[in-house]
């Protein structure tokens, strides 16, 4: 589970150096005396303080610089003394050791001052001032007493001869003490961030956090009540304050083990464990201040399948990134995700024989060295070795690949795979080689996972990686798993064998002190806590991709261009231009090489809705950051799909021959086609866009791998979308055999009318030739009418289709002329009402009065139009019969 990287080794880096120097001083080829070297403290700058007893009865203190790999002798006692606490100021001029609590001036002269003479245990630690300060005229020392108080000493310094820095008024040193903590029972020092966490008890336990600022002022910035049983700390407990080899503290005396971990992004976690008296169960609690929640875990040690009896009543808490490992040797290992704590399935849990921590020694002999922003290290107290620790990607990949990695069969092993997949993709996914291994596994196992959609999890987890390290508030806003899209979560993802999880009290921290800018850790933590509370109160704070389905259906139904469509097109252009900058190398898969109007609209809509959602819930990010994040987000989605296809393409060694429509697909192509089917199904389930050209490539594989009837059924059921590029290639690449001709007619019938007209002209066939002829004649007639000044009426009668025959167009033209002619039956003004001569036609009626109008009937064009129309329909039917035959 863990991967150790060798760092400092007390024997190799210190003892061998001491032996070499002692041999040179004694003029011996080899120094035979044993050297009893012990670690004392590790300063915030990485300097390691150690002591050893010399051959002449002396005790010496040295420092090992991890940057230069050099040792330096700091001070020598002329007798053997017991040093249980030691610290060095940044200028390396003052040394404090707990030997009657001496403040020793080691440079330029040895001047010893008794700082405090007490009978109880004392821990000492220098504060490290801001490195940008050019002149340092004082040092500041914390003194922790077992009696439960902390004093701050201000040691004034002065310069002599321009370079010598010595103590000024050492006799007044004790008067400079400032009491900053009263009555604590547990204390933890974080040297890298200069923070002090301590626990006090009145009616209940209260955790206080003190921040030391660069100007050496300090203030209490946080108070948090903890639900701990009374008398949890019968003796004072010191954490991260050096290593006391002379104080025999039995583990059984530690009723509660507690640690505080912080992260620069603005998170704070409190872990504490409470073993039960019968040692058959272990309870440990996680207080996630930044998430405003508490998780309480109860592990049954009797049912974990282990026959070992734990000699260590408390587990180790090992922070690695935003994961914290809870490890009890021989029983269980729980890798807790402190960012996504909603369900157990996002944290790894192993018990019994499945536990493989990778540690080489007993956990009781290990000290955890944690510094915010630096890799966590483990110190082996016996050997003095310090190793950096990381999660093992090989072990996590083994969880994905192996069916026997867990005692839990079937879908019960799915929570492990889900947690391992998220850890690999989000926390460790910046390694391109690792990402390719994960893609290869996804390609092979799309059908093996029962309780969740593997492709959806791969896409959303990879998506989430883009923003998780920038802003903690995105945890509640961005989607990171498809589990939340399900109406009902599978039971195997809610429960994990051997461990029971219950939600405890809300954290309810009280923030104090002054806000010191947006980059201050405490102000960021306060913002994260308040934002979490407000987002938890909302119903749909997390963006769900499927919620844009209704908007997408409405947008697809729009036929005419609009300003809204133009806006979507602008969004799509930004995304696709970013993808182009990422894909400068030669592309294996022919994507992003055509215009796909529908997918461009969906890309633009996804950008628009995601931007709107983040602006609504996280306006503090600012417009520019949100725009950049959203564009990167959607571009990463398209790039992920391209990478998945390229992984499958390379795995099955496909070449350009697979794009030929005239050959039948191979088994390898069938596998890729099936993989593309699953990608299409997964993206549709989340209403996610696909790269332009995906549907064309999918149709090419479909026509090669499927029978024609099945291919047409895929189209009719909406699973396969025809594109103009594919239809054009189908018309040109396939010959005009009976089967292919039938297929082409079927494809043309299923194309939109506008696309059909363009594709018709690509087909070398009598039907397409007739279509081209009709279009040409129609164009000539339209041009002729326009030249003659005849305006078309613009109305079409049922049964008339202007694209059938030119004769049909002639009938429509005559009909338009008739419509524009005056109606002789309407009353006209200023007409000659004189009766016609008797021989000029029909005689007037005898009842005709003087001055009345005589009506004459004129033949209509309508009968001719009807006859022309009927003839047209007969000829069109005959042409269709000839074509089908």
UniProtKB/TrEMBL annotation:
It comes from the Eukaryota. Residues 638-745 form the Gamma-secretase-activating protein C-terminal domain. Residues 826-849 are annotated as: Disordered. PANTHER family: GAMMA-SECRETASE-ACTIVATING PROTEIN. This is Gamma-secretase activating protein.
């Amino acid at each position: 589970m863990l991967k150790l990287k060798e760092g400092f080794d007390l024997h190799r880096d210190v003892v061998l150096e001491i032996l070499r120097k002692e041999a040179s001083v004694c003029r011996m080829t080899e120094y035979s005396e044993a050297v009893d070297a012990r670690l004392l403290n590790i300063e915030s700058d990485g300097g390691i303080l150690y002591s050893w007893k010399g051959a002449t009865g002396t005790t010496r203190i040295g420092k090992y610089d991890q940057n230069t790999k050099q040792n330096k002798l700091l001070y020598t006692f002329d007798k053997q003394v017991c040093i249980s606490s030691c610290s060095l100021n940044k200028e390396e001029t003052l040394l404090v050791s707990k030997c009657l609590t001496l403040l020793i001036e080691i440079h330029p002269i040895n001047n010893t001052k008794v700082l405090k003479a007490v009978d109880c245990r004392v821990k000492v630690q220098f504060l490290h001032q801001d490195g940008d300060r050019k002149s340092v005229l004082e040092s500041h020392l914390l003194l922790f007493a077992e009696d439960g108080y902390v004093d701050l000493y201000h040691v004034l310094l002065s310069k002599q001869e321009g370079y010598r820095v010595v103590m000024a008024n050492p006799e007044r040193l004790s008067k400079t003490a400032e009491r900053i903590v009263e009555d604590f029972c547990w204390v933890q020092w974080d040297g890298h961030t200069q923070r002090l966490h301590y626990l006090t008890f009145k009616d209940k336990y209260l955790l206080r956090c003190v921040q030391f600022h660069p100007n050496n002022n300090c203030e209490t910035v946080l108070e948090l009540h903890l639900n701990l049983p009374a008398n949890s700390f019968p003796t004072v407990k010191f954490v991260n304050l050096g290593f006391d080899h002379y104080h025999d503290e039995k583990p059984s005396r530690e009723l509660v083990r507690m640690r505080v971990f912080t992260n620069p992004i603005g998170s704070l976690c409190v872990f504490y464990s409470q073993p039960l008296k019968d040692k058959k169960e272990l309870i440990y609690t996680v207080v996630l201040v930044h998430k405003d929640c508490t998780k309480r875990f109860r592990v049954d040690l009797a049912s974990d399948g282990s026959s070992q009896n734990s000699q260590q009543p408390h587990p180790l808490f090992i922070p690695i990134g935003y994961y914290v490992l809870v490890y009890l040797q021989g029983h269980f290992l729980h890798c807790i995700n402190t960012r996504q704590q909603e369900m157990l399935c996002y944290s790894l849990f192993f018990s019994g024989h499945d536990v493989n921590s990778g540690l080489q020694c007993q956990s009781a002999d290990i000290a955890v060295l944690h510094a915010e922003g630096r890799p966590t290290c483990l110190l082996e107290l016996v050997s003095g070795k310090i190793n950096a620790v990381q999660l093992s990607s090989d072990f996590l990949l083994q969880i994905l690949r192996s069916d026997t990695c867990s005692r839990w069969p079937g879908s019960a092993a799915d929570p492990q795979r889900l947690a391992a997949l998220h850890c690999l993709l989000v926390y460790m996914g910046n390694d391109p080689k690792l990402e390719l291994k994960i893609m290869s596994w996804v390609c092979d196992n799309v059908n093996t996972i029962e309780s969740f959609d593997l492709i959806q999890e791969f896409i959303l987890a990879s998506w989430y990686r883009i923003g998780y390290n920038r802003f903690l508030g995105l945890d509640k806003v961005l989607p990171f798993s498809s589990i939340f899209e399900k109406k009902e979560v599978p039971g195997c993802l809610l429960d994990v064998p051997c461990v029971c999880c219950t939600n405890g009290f809300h954290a309810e921290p009280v923030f104090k002190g002054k806000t010191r800018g947006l980059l201050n850790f405490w102000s960021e933590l306060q913002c994260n806590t308040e934002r979490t509370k407000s987002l938890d109160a909302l119903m749909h704070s997390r963006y769900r991709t499927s919620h844009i389905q209704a908007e997408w259906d409405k947008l697809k139904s729009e036929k005419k261009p609009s300003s809204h469509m133009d806006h979507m097109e602008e969004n799509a252009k930004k995304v696709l231009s970013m993808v182009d900058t990422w894909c400068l190398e030669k592309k294996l898969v022919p994507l992003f090489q055509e215009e796909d109007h529908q997918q461009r609209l969906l890309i633009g809509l996804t950008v628009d809705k995601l931007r709107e959602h983040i602006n609504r819930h996280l306006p503090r990010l600012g417009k520019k950051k949100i725009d950049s994040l959203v564009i990167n987000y959607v571009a990463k989605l398209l790039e992920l799909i391209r990478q998945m296809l390229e992984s499958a393409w390379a795995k099955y060694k496909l070449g350009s021959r697979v794009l030929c429509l005239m050959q039948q697909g191979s088994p390898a192509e069938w596998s890729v086609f099936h993989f593309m089917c699953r990608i299409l199904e997964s993206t549709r389930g989340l209403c996610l866009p696909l790269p332009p050209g995906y549907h064309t490539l999918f149709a090419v594989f479909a026509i090669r791998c499927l029978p024609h009837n099945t291919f047409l059924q895929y189209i009719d059921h909406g699973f396969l979308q025809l594109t103009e590029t594919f239809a054009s290639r189908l018309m040109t690449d396939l010959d005009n055999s009976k089967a292919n001709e039938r297929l082409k007619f079927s494809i043309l019938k299923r194309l939109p009318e506008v696309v059909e007209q363009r594709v018709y002209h690509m087909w070398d066939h009598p039907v397409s030739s007739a279509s081209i002829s009709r279009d040409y004649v129609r164009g000539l007639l339209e041009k002729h009418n326009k030249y003659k000044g005849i305006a078309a009426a613009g109305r079409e009668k049922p049964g008339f289709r202007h694209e059938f025959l030119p004769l049909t167009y002639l009938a429509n033209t005559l009909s338009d002329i008739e419509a524009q002619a005056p109606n002789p039956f309407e009353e006209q003004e200023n007409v000659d009402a004189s009766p016609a001569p008797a021989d000029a036609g029909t005689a007037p009626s005898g009842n005709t009065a003087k001055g009345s109008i005589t009506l004459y009937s004129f033949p209509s064009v309508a009968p001719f139009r009807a006859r022309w129309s009927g003839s047209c329909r007969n000829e069109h039917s005959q042409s269709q019969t000839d074509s089908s035959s």
